[in-house]
Amino acid sequence: MIRCNVPITEITPGSRECRAACTSALANLRPGEPISREVAVQLIRCPEEDLPTLLAAARDARAAKKRFKPGIITYSRKVFLPLTNLCRDYCGYCIFRRDPGDPGAHTMTPEEVLSVARAGEKLGCTEALFSLGDKPELLFPEMRETLSHLGYKSTLHYLEAMCELVLRETGLLSAEWIARLAAVSPSMGLMLETTNSALLAPGAAHDNAPDKVPAKRLRTIADAGKQNVPFTTGLLIGIGESLEDRVDTLLAIRDMNDRYGHIQEVIVQNFRVKPAIPMARCPEPTRGEMLRAVAVARLLLPNVNIQAPPNLSAPYYDDLADAGINDWGGISPLTPDFINPEKPWPHLEQLRLRTEAKGFALRQRLPVYPEFLPAVTAKPGLLSEKLRAAADDDGLAKTNEGGMLERA
Ligand code: SF4
User: Fold this and answer.
1) Which domains are assigned to the chain?
2) How far apart are the CA of 209 and the centre of ligand 1, in A?
3) What residue's CA is closest to ligand 1, atom 4?
4) At residue 258, what are phi and psi to the nearest 5 degrees?
5) Closest among 299, 300, 26, 318 to 308, alpha carbons compared
6) pLDDT digits (tens, 9 = 90+) for 194-253
7) H or E, element range at 296
8) In this structure, is the dihedral angle defined by the CA atoms of residues 175, 179, 182 and 183, taken in order, positive or negative?
9) Largest CB tally within 10 Å, which of 5, 132, 135, 286?
10) What are phi and psi of 47, to 5 degrees?
């Protein structure tokens, strides 16, 4: 059982000084101008009565940037491919991972990958998102045997080959792995989750999760930046971190983006409790925490796409549109959310209606956001050809009137 020993701060109106600081921070915001750590910490602690002002400021920040298409919230129509659920890490909130021999432990064959990708293509998906455990072959001889049987040295080599296979054989584009995949895959993602390395301590969420060392993950994000690979990252809220940690994680991402300009999207993801996980007794972040985190992310990163998964904030997910997001992330008409299987995606029609009720049109995007498309399509090759064929004049996904992808 994981200790939730770092207090998940209850967001209630604090001291008079705290409220005054928040009110003054809100009064001094300038739409579109990034804010300091001190201001972000004051805002993420804002009392309930100031929340509407904070959300309005986040919306103003979104509206101030021309790079976000006005009146549009995007999503990516994806198939999720759980390439392997074997993992050498044991994160306290994870229900996806398995040890070899556990019920449901599975590594997909190339035939299975292709069959799901083709089914997704028929449903108008434009992206294949591979989810997989971290380096299982380092811990499990069974995985080494599976890989050798398939003809690969490591899980990442297998992933690379499956990205290529899907790219070659279908209209889907995959968004995985870095240097060697840069020629094959249009973007790459790795959740930073948190910069708080105290969560690696015994009994905390990242106890026995060697791949969750924040410095290592920041190095990977920096490597992507040096190679100019459009990068998706984000923070996980509610895993035992403090409000200040949330701000510091966003600042670390901002720092990466200031240096390399490659962060195409930041996901603000909330922990959801599940009965069978070590964190089964930990509290989930509240709606208010989620809204504050999204709004502060928007204010800290005014130029970056901010995404929050709607299925993890049901039933109030449309409120996230009020907090400054401009993307709902990957939604699959075919495959479940393997990481949060108890939280089904909203039906796309429902998502459209609720997005429109908030005053936005819902548009399907590609795995690469429009502003990163020219750099990726400038490189010759199959990836570039497929992306150009899939993009419309706005750099979003080419769809027919019913919202389905037009086959190029
Ligand atoms: S969250 Fe990822 S790294 Fe952690 S245990 Fe689950 S699959 Fe492994």
Assistant:
1) 72-390 (3.20.20.70)
2) 8
3) 91
4) -65, -35
5) 318
6) 999 999 999 999 999 999 999 999 998 998 888 888 899 999 999 999 999 999 999 999
7) helix 287-300
8) negative
9) 132
10) -70, 165
